[in-house]
């Protein structure tokens, strides 16, 4: 199964036909995932379910979106912070991103609503392709969560209930090539506010993750590699067993970098899983509304411990 590693990060083969609950393959993939998340907060899912044709089509549709006039693409399309356009940030001049909020499971209606704002007459091809693509990433997110709950030997119903209250957002990121004397930092080091973030790059390097040793490593941008990062909500859920993965973007190639991401949230409360609280791991975090956390994070990023800690 997953003997492969890229740097320190294990690769889990999501295409393995034996990757089914109850099999030995499932069990060992879960253990690999759990130790990777506990060590460095991330792992790779390897999959060719997104065809080259679909990946290229999504990237070129997103390019069309980024090429729209600024006053069009910057329109607010969700009331939630970090869920619409994000860019034109003086500290991050190379960076721009757009988000489509599904406000629940991935669904085509949300993409149509979004496309109607951007193109006024909608855009069928955009809606079809993004829906197909986001559904494949949603499936990957759900498999990863099922593997994880099994790896902690938790009742399946706990995972069912998390998946039922999961809300997704798809984002696309674009980075300009820096000028010769310009700083090449695309996006500063941070952790995400999510449970999982699945990142899928356009073969241009740039995404780096911080290992537990403190070392920053480049990620593999190949099209069959999906880097799955643990966010703050998963850290809280696991009672600090899992690390939220610190990552950043550094633009080293003279090529435009694009990337896609599926972000998972909870439309109910983020809570520590009770079975993961014991004498050695006393409860560290409060329970909270995920979107209240997102709002707090967007206003007071330096004070998040006061929001999270018991
Ligand atoms: O550009 C990317 O691949 C990831 C961007 C990112 O980390 C974020 O927006 O949270
Ligand atoms: Fe991020």
Automatic annotation (TrEMBL):
PROSITE patterns: FE2OG_OXY
Keywords: Dioxygenase, Iron, Metal-binding, Oxidoreductase
InterPro entries named in the record: DIOX_N, IPNS-like_FE2OG_OXY, IPNS-like_sf, Iron_ascorbate_oxido_reductase, Oxoglu/Fe-dep_dioxygenase_dom
Record domain Fe2OG dioxygenase: where: 166-268
GO molecular function, one term: metal ion binding
SUPFAM superfamilies on file: Clavaminate synthase-like
Stored Pfam families: 2OG-FeII_Oxy, DIOX_N
Function: Probable 2-oxoglutarate-dependent dioxygenase that may be involved in glucosinolates biosynthesis. May play a role in the production of aliphatic glucosinolates.
PANTHER family: 2-OXOGLUTARATE (2OG) AND FE(II)-DEPENDENT OXYGENASE SUPERFAMILY PROTEIN-RELATED (PTHR47990)
Family, as annotated: Belongs to the iron/ascorbate-dependent oxidoreductase family.
Name recorded for this polypeptide: Fe2OG dioxygenase domain-containing protein
Source organism (scientific name): Acacia crassicarpa
């Amino acid at each position: 199964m997953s003997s492969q590693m890229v740097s320190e990060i294990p690769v889990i083969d999501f295409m393995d036909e034996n990757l089914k609950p109850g099999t030995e393959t499932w069990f060992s993939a879960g253990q690999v995932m759990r130790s990777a998340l506990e060590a460095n907060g991330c792992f790779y899912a390897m999959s060719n379910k997104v065809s080259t044709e679909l990946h290229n089509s999504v990237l070129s549709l997103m390019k069309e979106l980024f090429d729209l006039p600024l006053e069009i693409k910057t329109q607010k399309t969700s009331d939630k912070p970090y869920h619409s356009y994000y860019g034109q940030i003086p500290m991050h001049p190379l960076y721009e991103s757009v988000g489509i909020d599904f406000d629940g499971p991935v669904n085509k209606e949300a993409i149509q609503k979004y496309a109607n704002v951007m193109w006024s007459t909608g855009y069928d091809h955009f809606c079809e392709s993004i829906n197909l693509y986001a559904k494949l990433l949603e499936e990957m997110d759900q498999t990863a969560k099922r593997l994880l709950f099994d790896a902690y030997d938790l009742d399946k119903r706990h995972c069912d209930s998390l998946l039922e209250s999961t809300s997704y957002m798809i984002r696309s990121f674009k980075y300009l090539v820096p000028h010769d004397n310009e700083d090449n930092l695309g996006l500063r080091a941070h952790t995400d506010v999510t449970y999982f973030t699945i990142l899928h790059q356009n073969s241009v390097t740039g995404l780096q993750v911080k290992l537990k040793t403190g070392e920053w490593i480049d990620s593999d941008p190949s099209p069959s590699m999906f880097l799955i990062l643990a966010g703050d909500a998963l850290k809280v859920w696991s009672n600090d067993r899992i690390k939220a993965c610190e990552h950043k973007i550094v633009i080293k190639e003279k090529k435009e970098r694009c990337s896609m991401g599926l972000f998972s949230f909870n439309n109910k409360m983020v809570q520590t899983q009770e079975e993961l609280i014991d004498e050695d791991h006393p409860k560290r975090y409060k329970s909270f509304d995920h979107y209240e956390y997102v709002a707090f994070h967007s206003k007071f990023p330096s004070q998040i411990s006061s929001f999270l800690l018991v």
